[in-house]
Amino acid sequence: MSRKVKIGLGLAAIVGGTVMGAIGFYLSFGNLSQAGHTVFGFSVADAPYFAVGVDVAIVTCLVLDLFMACIRTSWPLLRFLAHGMTAASIYFNAAAHGAITENWDKAASHGLMPVLFVIGVEAGRRILVHQAALPADHDVIPGHRWVLATGQTWRIFREMKLWDVGYSVAMSRQRERAIFNAWNEYKAELAADKLAEGSEEALARLPKKLRPFGLTVDEALALPDRMAREELRRKQESEKRARQLELDRERAEHQAEKERLAHRKEMAALKADLTATEGVAGAQARGAVAEAEARAEAQARAASSLSEAMESREAAEAKQRAAEAEAKAAEAEARAAEADAAKMTALATTETEKAKALDAIHRAAEAEAKAAEAQQRAAEAREATAQILRRAVEAEDFAELTQRQRRVRIVARMLLAAGDREVTNQEIADAIGVKSPGTASEHRTEAVALIKGGYPEYDPDVPSREA
C-alpha cells in the first residue's frame, strides 16, 4: 500500500472519529443531564456537571493510558476504569428514558454512541502502540488466554507477580520448561520402546509430541540437534566453571603459602635480632666479670706483695707481680673490646640476612607475575578457541546441513575440546544419540578428517558468509 493511501485512510479515520465522538458527547450530554435530574436526583443546575464529569472521566482515563504508554510506564487499571466508566455511561444513557428492561430499543440506541467512541479510541491506541513500538500491551496477559488455558495462564500470572517479570518473559520460560519436559518424556518413551533417537520411527513421533507447544514440523525435527548443542554448551560451561574454581582454589592456596612464608621470614628476623642481642649482652657481662676478677686479683696480689715487701726484702718481686696484675687488667679490657666487636659483627650479619630475605621475596614476586602471565595467555587461547567453535556452530545453523553432517561436527568439537585426552566411542555415541559403537567410530573418522581439513576455521560444507 502506498504512502498516500495510508495518509488518506488515516485522515478519514481521524475525521470520522472526531465526528463520531462529537455526536456521541453531544447526545450523551443531553441524556445524562436529563437522567441526572429525573432519575438520579440531581438538581437542574447540577445535572449538566454530572454529565460532563462522566464523559470527561472516560476521555481522561483513555488519554492518561496513552500518555503512560508513551513514557513506557503502562498501567492497565486506567483502561479498566475507562471501560467501567463507559459501561456506567451506557447505563445512564439507557436509563434516561425509563426502565431498561421495558425499553430495550431505546436502551440500545442510547448506549450505542459511547460504545462506538471507546472502540474508536482503542483502535487509535493500537495504531499508536504499533507505530511507536511501545511495550504497553506486551507484558499484559491477553484475555483469550484465560479462556483457552486457565490453569497454565494462572501459573504464568503467578510467576509474573512473584518474580516481577513481564508476560513475554514468563511465557518464554514456561514454554521452554514445557518443551524440555516433553523432550525428556520423549527420550524415556524411546528408551522404553528400544528405539534410537536418530531413527526415522523416532523422529516421526516428534511433531505430534511437540504440537501442543506451537512448534512446526521442521522445528520439531530439528529439536534433537538443538538439544545436543545445548547439552554440549552446558557441558562446556560446566567444565569452564570447574576450571575457574580450580584456578581460584590454587590462587587462594598460593596466597596462603605466601603469607606463611612472610610470617616465617619475620620470625626468622626476630630470632636473629634476639640471638645477636643475647650474644652482645653475654659478651659484655663476661668482659665485666673478667675485668672485675682481674682487678681483684691484681689488688690482692699487690697487697700480698706489699706485705711481703714489708716483711722481707723482696720488694722488687712484689712490683713485678703488680705489673703482671696490671697486664691482666689490660687483657680483660681487650676482651671487652673484642665483645663489642662481636656485637657489631652480629648486627652486620642480621642486616645481611634481611637483605637476603628481601631478595627472596623479590624473586618470588617475579615468579608469581610470570605464572599469572602464563595463565592469562592460556585463558586467552581457550577463549579464542571457544569463539572459533561458536562461530562454527553459527555457520552450521546458517547452512542447511544434514543430520549426519551436524553429528560429525558435534564429534569434531568434542575432539577439539578434549585436547590430549582420549575420547571413547561410547562418549561419542552418548553425545550424538546413537547406539552402535561402529557408527560412533565412523563419525570419529569423518570428524578427524574434517579437523585435518582446517575445521573449524574452514568447513567445506558451510558457505562463507562473506561471499
Question: What does the radius of gyration come to?
Answer: 49 Å
Strand content: under 5%
Helix and strand pattern: HHHHHHHHHHHHHH
Helix content: over 70%
Pick out the low-confidence regions.
306-311
Mean pLDDT: 77
**Number of helical stretches of at least 4 residues:** 14
Tally the beta strands. Answer: 0
Q: Overall 3D geometry?
A: elongated
Main sheet properties: none
Instruction: Please report the distance between the alpha carbons of the first and last residues.
Output: 34 Å
Query: What would you call the structural class?
Result: mainly alpha
Seen as an oligomer or otherwise, the chain set is single chain
Characteristics:
single chain; 467 residues; 82% helix; mainly alpha
Describe this structure as you would to a colleague.
The protein is mostly helical and 467 residues long. The protein is built from 14 helices and no strands. The protein has helices at 3-38, 47-70, 76-94, 104-132, 143-148, 150-163, 167-193, 200-210, 217-221, 223-311, 315-398, 403-418, 425-432, 437-452. The radius of gyration is 49 Å and the shape is elongated.
What does this entry show, briefly?
This protein is an all-alpha fold and 467 residues long.
Produce the secondary structure layout.
Blueprint: H1 3-38, H2 47-70, H3 76-94, H4 104-132, H5 143-148, H6 150-163, H7 167-193, H8 200-210, H9 217-221, H10 223-311, H11 315-398, H12 403-418, H13 425-432, H14 437-452
